[in-house]
């Protein structure tokens, strides 16, 4: 293995998680002007986190951000330690022995639940699992999603729900030119889905999706988009809120949705229907314990805390036959052993990235957070850049005034020996570039940006030149 030899005098920072936040943080630290080095730890052999395993395969341009991550990886003082699980191969205490600061950029690894009867029936899945599966995440390649049904409900109207609905509506030939996982390509090509319902519990003015994403739903080759006029007619409270804020984004969204409501179906193979002001109250199973229908309750909007309009159920119900349900109601952070956790918000309590013992409490010296585990699962990839800058500046300030950790180990190479003893299949940046070259070469042959290798043993075989 070749590793750069960081200067002995530099302060060493361990960053846990090689997604966008981890890279943005590393970049800011390495360009801070302080003598700092960064070791980026990643559980998988592959870098880029949600850019590789979350961004929709048909949104290839968004993935170009990895070019700037590659530049960061090329900076002096940067090392990548892939296929290393913090908690299994190395503990937080071990990290404290080697580094002046440790920053967690571990994202929001799980999904929120609906907590309704039938949520765990066969055919009811979290959107995050489906997304990871179709993006070729190695933890999900054995999952199966039965797409031999006519109607699917996607619960939630955020951008993840929009991604899922769009991928379900794409034609096989559209998907075949993306880096969608091969197993998903086969399954989606055989899909018998005719209608996808996107279901929002509040109204169109409160929907979490962004305008370019919802507009794209109206441009699908393989699906007619439909919206009910009565469900996008704004109630008095939404009208008043819109008039008061004069929010151009919401006005534009209303134009897009009104255009959808004015359309007549043009006979495309699928239909994508966006519904509003409906909450799922039960998933109804068939005799075999599989989802057969979804029971929805109508909502009206009322004023909640801090002038937020919230959904209040009314006595009106609707049952729609569906064979598959994806709940897409947001991600949630996962606690890290040995660190405090705010169970209400699903984040690690912090002040501008400096970890606190509890919200508003004392600092945990030398430990930091950035990204979704710091602020919650909100914003687009770019949102993580200023967020990472804030944390990086705290780290640089603290370590340069001696307020970081005091690692027992002084040799920057000691961590490599330590990791090799715990994980013989340690993956370096050079190893990743070999894997990347094989994936992109295989993709080029098939007319695709890349062909993802779906399991860790297969990735390691490629890296080891087998
Ligand atoms: P999100 O934006 O927070 O949307 C969650 C949706 O779930 C909202 O519509 C929310 O409604 C709804 N919801 C929550 N609890 C519910 C319940 N109990 N019953 C029914 N509906 C419920 O989350 P996300 O879609 O997972 O996206 C996460 C972040 O990634 C977002 O910032 C998103 O913009 C970003 N992202 C961006 C892109 C892109 O730029 N193309 C793609 C994917 C993801 P309420 O508003 O009523 O709570």
Question: Can you walk through the features of this model?
Answer:
It is a single chain. Helix content is 33%, strand content 21%. The chain is an alpha/beta fold and 466 residues long. The protein has two domains: 11-109 and 333-427, Rossmann fold (3-Layer(aba) Sandwich), CATH 3.40.50.720; 112-331, FAD/NAD(P)-binding domain, CATH 3.50.50.60. The protein is globular, with a radius of gyration of 24 Å. The two termini are 17 Å apart. NADP nicotinamide-adenine-dinucleotide phosphate binds at residues 114, 155-161, 163, 200-202, 206, 208, 213, 279, 328-331, 377-380.
Number of strands: 18
- Specify the CATH class of the largest domain: Alpha Beta
Q: What is the CATH T-level topology of the largest domain?
A: FAD/NAD(P)-binding domain
Strand order of the largest sheet: 3-2-1-4-18-17-16
Short description:
This protein has 466 residues and is an alpha/beta fold. It has helices spanning 20-30, 50-53, 66-73, 92-98, 127-134, 159-169, 172-175, 182-189, 211-217, 229-232, 236-245, 248-262, 372-375, 384-400, 414-422, 429-445, 456-463; strands spanning 11-16, 36-42, 78-82, 101-104, 110-111, 124-126, 151-155, 195-199, 223-227, 270-275, 278-285, 291-303, 309-321, 324-327, 331-332, 350-351, 354-356, 363-369.
Write the layout of secondary structure elements.
Layout: E1 11-16, H1 20-30, E2 36-42, H2 50-53, H3 66-73, E3 78-82, H4 92-98, E4 101-104, E5 110-111, E6 124-126, H5 127-134, E7 151-155, H6 159-169, H7 172-175, H8 182-189, E8 195-199, H9 211-217, E9 223-227, H10 229-232, H11 236-245, H12 248-262, E10 270-275, E11 278-285, E12 291-303, E13 309-321, E14 324-327, E15 331-332, E16 350-351, E17 354-356, E18 363-369, H13 372-375, H14 384-400, H15 414-422, H16 429-445, H17 456-463
Parallel strand pairs: 1-2, 1-4, 2-3, 4-18, 6-14, 7-8, 7-14, 8-10, 9-10
Antiparallel strand pairs: 5-15, 11-12, 12-13, 16-17, 17-18
This protein binds NADP nicotinamide-adenine-dinucleotide phosphate.
């Amino acid at each position: 293995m070749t590793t750069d030899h960081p200067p002995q005098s530099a302060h060493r920072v361990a960053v846990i998680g090689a997604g966008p936040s981890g890279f943005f943080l590393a970049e800011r630290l390495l360009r801070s002007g302080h003598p700092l080095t960064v070791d980026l730890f990643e559980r998988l052999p592959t870098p880029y986190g949600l850019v590789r395993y979350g961004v929709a395969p048909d949104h290839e341009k968004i993935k170009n951000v990895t070019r700037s991550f590659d530049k960061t990886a090329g900076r002096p003082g940067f090392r990548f330690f892939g296929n290393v699980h913090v908690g299994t191969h190395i503990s937080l205490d071990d990290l404290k022995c080697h580094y002046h600061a440790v920053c967690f950029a571990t994202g929001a690894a799980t999904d929120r639940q609906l907590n309704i009867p039938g949520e765990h029936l066969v055919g009811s899945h979290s959107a995050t699992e489906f997304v990871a599966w179709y993006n070729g995440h190695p933890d999900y390649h054995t999952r199966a999603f039965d797409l031999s049904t006519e109607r699917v409900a996607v619960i939630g109207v955020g951008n993840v729900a929009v991604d899922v609905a769009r991928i379900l509506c794409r034609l096989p030939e559209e998907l075949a030119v993306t880096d969608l996982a091969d197993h998903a390509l086969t399954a989606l090509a055989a899909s018998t889905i005719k209608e996808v319902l996107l279901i929002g519990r509040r109204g169109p003015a409160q929907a979490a999706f962004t305008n370019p994403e919802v507009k794209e739903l109206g441009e699908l080759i393989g699906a007619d988009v439909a919206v009910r006029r009565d469900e996008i007619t704004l109630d008095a409270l939404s009208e008043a809120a819109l008039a008061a804020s004069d929010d151009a984004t919401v006005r534009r969204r209303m134009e897009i949705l009104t255009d959808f409501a004015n359309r007549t179906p043009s006979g495309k193979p699928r239909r994508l229907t966006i519904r509003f002001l409906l909450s799922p109250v039960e998933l109804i199973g068939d005799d075999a314990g599989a989802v057969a229908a979804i029971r929805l309750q109508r909502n009206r909007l009322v004023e909640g805390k801090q002038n937020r309009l919230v959904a209040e159920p009314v006595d009106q119900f609707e049952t729609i036959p569906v064979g598959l349900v994806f709940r897409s109601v947001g991600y949630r952070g996962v606690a890290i052993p040995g660190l405090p956790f705010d169970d209400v918000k699903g984040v690690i309590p912090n002040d501008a990235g400096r970890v606190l013992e509890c919200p508003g409490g004392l600092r945990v010296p030398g430990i930091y957070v950035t990204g979704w585990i710091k602020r919650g699962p909100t914003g687009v990839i770019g949102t993580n850049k200023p967020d990472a800058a804030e944390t990086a500046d705290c780290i640089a300030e603290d370590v340069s005034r001696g307020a970081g950790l005091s690692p027992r180990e002084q040799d920057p190479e000691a961590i490599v020996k330590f990791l090799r003893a715990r994980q013989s299949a340690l993956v370096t940046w050079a190893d990743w570039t070999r894997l990347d070259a094989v994936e992109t070469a295989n993709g080029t042959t098939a007319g695709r940006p890349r062909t993802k290798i779906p399991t860790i043993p297969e990735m390691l075989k490629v890296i080891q030149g087998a």
